[in-house]
Amino acid sequence: MQAKAILRHTPTSPRKMRLVAGLVRGKQVDQAKAILHNSTKSASRNVMVTLKSAVANWSQLNPDERASDNELFVKAIFVDEGSSLKRLLPAPMGRAYRIRKRSNHLTIVVDKVENKVTK
User: What is the annotated signal peptide range for this record (predicted)?
Assistant: First the structure.
């Protein structure tokens, strides 16, 4: 059974977060943690926190099963655009430039690797 974790209103742009999300999509959880730990992107910290939360949610939903990090994998990870704060920056000759401070919503779904037995 799969489990998910959602991190909402993260104050980074969705484009920057999608770069990090693409690194761990489809990977096993232990590989994903190693990639995020060694990444220099600041968004990798938020992805790491959400990934740990998704693994904890999986163990809460499946109390009878035990699974290590190499038995779980990132089934889906996606970044949606959140609300934008609109600000104005004064410009020459009485004008103003618009600044949009973007945010995003991160969703991670983890599931257990199914071992298929071939006959």
Answer: none
